[in-house]
């Protein structure tokens, strides 16, 4: 395996860059030095890392929507409409661009023009190119992040960072396993080392770009330790390439104790692993994603899901929260529905801001559980990689040591099966080949047995299916009817 | 009772895997032979699988909003490939934005789909309709 977690040399980067920039015509004319000058000239108010650092200092939770449409002027109108209601802005990239299907994206742009409405589920930044992307940044006052799901995001990164976007979501695992079917993990990790190196090069020129591994993965009953391991690995890979501003993410599970413990343990484990690997000079923040699974169709009910997530984001001490909308059950929201999600979230954040969740032995226990799980799996990852985290990650997925439930990628084992316990926390029903300590596994079994007894049924796959649909049918736990 | 083979998949560049796994599970439990192509399936892959397995139905899912682009033309390609009796279903969040379902249904019926389902459809009911439609077509 040629893969290694080692800073790319300038020669290797430049040689690869020439190829990358030729993959679509808009890559021509994107100049790194010009990008640095443009970034350095941006006002502080547009810098993502500065907004995060300020929020960290003040103990505030910032809110950020998802949003993106096919055409530039409409995209600007959408973001300008949302801007007063949020702290941080996104540009969500469409699904064709995510798979480098730029011809399909071009067709989507053409059909959207003809239809007079966006037929794409996001903003095709590569097709629009540098100058048009800069028009987006220039029309806004707040920092803008690229949010996507792209296994090979090298050209997208070159264009959007040169265009003044100041944060870049994704990673070689988190933008492969939940977003692709047949992309080899080794390749996507390698391609993301390029993206991380690009961010590192900007950093070396005094431009801090925020890097955020995508926390929620498949968004479906993902146990905290699974997403924490991926977040930590991608954090380590990014730090090695010279990134200095890392935001680790987690998707809401729904149980208050588990969600608060998840963000706390994520932050502490991040520092633990980053420092153990010798990195000291970095800024770490966290992001909490409001419920990523199925939503109720009823908009009033959807607001409750949004509000509960907002409360958890604030109580857990996350640096920012990614906001859902009352249209979530139907897919892409209108700008009005998007704003409603932000307003509902802001109301909760403001009400919870001064409150501190009391010190609790139950939360401490859950934090300790997650930490033991993560340490056990990470130890195996390093062992499989002979100390190299990139190699270890690839081998760990091959071996089923890292295993994301309900993910589409064929390089993911899919043997680990989660289910909720009697209080709604996500537990391990089938562990697959994930090396959790015996007593930890026994604890999960015991918690699931409590629920099985309460429901008078054996824990089978139907229980998992019931859990997947539960929130869209107004409950956290999928109890039998 | 039934001897139905149905090709199942999520069309286009759509990676939504969860519903696909549940559909597979639920339809299999209803006695339908499911040929599950998983996510990110092209129109040709659906048709090739139907030809190879002699499937009586193709069940197309789309969740991410590009359904209007991805699903158009499948009926025509089925006819070109000699699948003149195949039952075509489509379901999910088929368009961008929250639109009236009757409007969405008309749009996709116009593309040649026999039935159009919202994401909230009861899967048992859907399986029963499939059995009826296949019986009526053969």
Gist of the model:
The complex is a heterodimer of chains A (481) and B (138). Chain A is an alpha/beta fold.
How does the SSE layout of this entry go?
The complex is a heterodimer of chains A (481) and B (138).
Chain A: H1 10-21, H2 32-40, H3 48-58, E1 62-64, H4 72-82, E2 89-92, H5 95-98, H6 102-115, H7 125-138, E3 144-147, H8 154-162, E4 167-169, H9 185-204, E5 210-212, H10 224-240, E6 245-251, H11 256-276, E7 283-289, H12 299-316, E8 320-322, H13 335-352, H14 361-384, H15 389-399, E9 417-420, E10 426-430, H16 438-455, H17 461-470
Parallel strand pairs in A: 1-8, 2-3, 3-4, 4-5, 5-6, 6-7, 7-8
Antiparallel strand pairs in A: 9-10
Helix pairs in contact in A: 4-7, 7-8, 8-9, 9-10, 10-11, 10-14, 11-12, 11-14, 12-13, 14-15
Chain B: E1 5-10, H1 18-29, E2 33-36, H2 43-53, E3 57-62, H3 67-70, H4 74-80, E4 87-92, H5 101-110, E5 115-117, H6 123-137
Binding site for adenosylcob(III)alamin (chain A): 68, 121, 178, 295, 324, 328, 332
Catalytic activity (chain A): (2S,3S)-3-methyl-L-aspartate = L-glutamate
Enzyme class (chain A): isomerase
Q: If you average the pLDDT of chain B, what whole number results? A: 95
User: Biggest sheet of chain A, in brief?
Assistant: 8 strands, parallel
Strand-residue fraction of chain B? 15-25%
Give the second-level CATH assignment, the architecture of chain B.
Answer: 3-Layer(aba) Sandwich
Q: What would you call the quaternary organization?
A: heterodimer
- Approximate helicity band of chain B: 40-55%
CATH architecture of the largest domain in chain A: Alpha-Beta Barrel
Basic shape of chain A: globular
CATH topology of the largest domain in chain A: TIM Barrel
The CATH superfamily of the largest domain in chain A bears the name Methylmalonyl-CoA mutase
């Amino acid at each position: 395996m040629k893969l290694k977690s080692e800073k790319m040399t300038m020669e290797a980067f430049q040689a690869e860059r020439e190829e990358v920039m030729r993959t679509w015509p808009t890559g021509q004319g994107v100049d790194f030095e010009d990008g640095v000058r443009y970034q350095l000239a941006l006002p502080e108010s547009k810098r993502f890392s500065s907004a995060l650092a300020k929020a960290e200092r003040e103990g505030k939770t910032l809110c950020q929507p998802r949003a993106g449409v096919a055409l530039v002027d409409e995209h600007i109108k959408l973001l300008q409409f949302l801007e007063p209601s949020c702290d941080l802005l996104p540009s969500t990239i469409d699904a064709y661009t995510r798979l480098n299907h730029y011809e399909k994206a071009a067709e989507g742009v053409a059909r959207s023009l003809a239809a007079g409405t966006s037929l794409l589920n996001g903003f095709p930044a590569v097709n629009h190119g540098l100058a048009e992307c800069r028009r987006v940044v220039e029309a806004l006052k707040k920092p803008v992040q690229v949010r996507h799901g792209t296994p090979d995001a090298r050209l997208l990164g070159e264009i959007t960072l040169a265009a003044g976007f100041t944060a870049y979501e994704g990673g070689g695992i988190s933008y492969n396993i939940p977003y692709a079917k047949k992309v080899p993990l080794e390749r996507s990790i390698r391609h993301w080392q390029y993206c991380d190196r690009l961010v590192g090069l900007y950093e070396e020129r005094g431009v801090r770009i925020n890097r955020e591994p995508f926390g929620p993965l498949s968004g479906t009953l993902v146990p905290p330790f699974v997403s924490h391991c991926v977040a930590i690995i991608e954090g380590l890979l990014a730090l090695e390439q010279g990134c200095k501003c890392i935001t680790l993410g987690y998707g809401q599970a729904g149980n208050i104790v588990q969600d608060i413990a998840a963000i706390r343990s994520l932050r502490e484990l991040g520092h633990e692993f980053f420092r153990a690997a010798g990195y000291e000079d970095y800024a770490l923040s966290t992001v909490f994603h409001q419920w990523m699974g199925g939503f109720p169709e009823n908009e009033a009910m959807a607001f409750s899901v949004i509000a509960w997530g907002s409360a958890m984001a604030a109580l857990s001490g996350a640096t920012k929260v990614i906001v859902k909308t009352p249209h979530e059950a139907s897919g892409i929201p209108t700008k009005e529905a998007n704003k409603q999600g932000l307003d509902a979230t802001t109301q909760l954040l403001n009400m919870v801001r001064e409150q501190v969740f009391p010190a609790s032995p139950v939360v401490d226990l859950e934090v300790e559980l997650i930490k033991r799980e993560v340490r056990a799996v990470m130890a195996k990852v390093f062992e499989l990689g002979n100390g190299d985290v990139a190699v270890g990650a690839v081998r760990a997925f091959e071996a089923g040591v890292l295993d994301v439930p309900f993910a589409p990628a064929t390089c993911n084992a899919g043997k680990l099966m989660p289910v909720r316990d009697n209080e709604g926390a996500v537990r391990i029903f089938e562990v697959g080949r994930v090396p959790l300590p015996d007593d930890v596994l026994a604890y999960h079994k015991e918690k699931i047995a409590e629920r099985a007894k309460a429901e008078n049924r054996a824990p089978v796959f139907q229980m998992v299916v019931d859990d997947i649909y539960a929130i869209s049918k107004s409950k956290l736990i999928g109890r039998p009817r | 009772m039934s001897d139905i083979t149905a090709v199942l998949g999520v069309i286009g560049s759509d990676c939504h895997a969860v519903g696909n796994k549940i559909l597979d599970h639920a339809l299999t439990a209803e006695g339908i032979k499911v040929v599950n192509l998983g996510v990110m399936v092209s129109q040709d892959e659906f048709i090739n699988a139907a030809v190879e397995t002699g499937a009586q139905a193709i069940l197309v899912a789309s969740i991410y909003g590009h359904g209007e682009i991805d699903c158009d033309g499948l009926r025509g390609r089925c006819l070109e490939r000699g699948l003149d009796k195949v039952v075509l279903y489509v379901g999910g969040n088929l368009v961008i934005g929250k639109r009236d379902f009757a409007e969405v249904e008309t749009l996709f019926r116009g593309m040649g789909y026999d039935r159009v389902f919202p994401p909230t459809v009861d899967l048992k009911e859907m399986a029963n309709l499939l059995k009826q439609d296949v019986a009526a077509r053969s």
